[in-house]
Amino acid sequence: MRRFLTTLTAIGGLLALSFGTAAAADYKWRMATIAPENSFVFNIFPKYFAEKVNLWSNGRIEIEVFGSGVLAHPFKLYDAVQEGTVDIAWSYPGFLVNADPVNAIFAGFPGGMAPETFMHWAYMDGGQELWEEYRREKMGLVGLYCGQGTTEIFAHSHKPVRSAEDLKGYKHRSTGAWASILKDEFGGAPTVTPFGEIFGMLQRKSIDGVEYAGPGGNLALGYHKIAKYIIFPGVHQPSSSQEIFMKSEVFDALPDDLQQVVRDAAKATVINSWLELGNADQTAMEEYRNSGNELIMMDDALVAQIEAAGRQWIETNIEEQDAADPLAQKILESYKAYQAAWSQNAFTRAQDRE
Asked: Which helix (H) or strand (E) holds 29?
């Protein structure tokens, strides 16, 4: 019996040593994000990604995830990664649109693809490869599609918006292509505001309305509790995509199997976030209908006008840099071709409507 216990103790020690070795991380990264820590968005996007990397790498990659503003300003995450003060980050490409309009293709823009179409383009028609090529060439980064939002709410608003006339002077918290289009084409007053400041600005009525996410993503943020009107459809942002990024040399230094782990975790995050938010949208819409808010559908004419303005915006801005940047035009042409094919053939797909 004593010999058995001695042997069992020895085996236990070896197992503990083995597990301890397996858990030792070869790569430890600090990850900056644009989401408040432990928020719904934080949990289903960057936290989910990090957990999958840690799990699927068997602990060889350990990612510590930080909430918005802890490691760097949420609008400066790309700079922080390039400068090496942050190892990896999760953000929204729309924050880069003013510096480079190609980012509107990755982030989403008025008149652009719906989420399902975008996912297919990215994974089945070379969109992810073009995205990665562009990040490497222009920023020295590896950028991987890592999150898919549902179509956004156009605005939680203190003012109704139905026609183009209602957008004149309209103070809309927004980002990306829509901010420029609102100002230049509709005479609006866009305000680019970090997440942490949105609620207070809406509450003080220093802005008329706010767009941030889809119904499910917005529910816990409480915008509907302080703004009477909820404006649809989210024509300004039919699809909202996010990415994780790191220096190309950091990614390239990983063994092939760990590179694949990072890619697989990013893709899993896209699918998980799409499902989580789609499901949350159902609960949110019931809450909005029962909360005393007034749900407003913008006029079809305004929706068409915004879509046309968005398509013209992307064409014009990318054409301006086309001569010096053929890769930008290549990305746009690929995107447009897939969107056109999908639009032509989408009649084959069932849609659940009342």
From this structure: strand 27-33
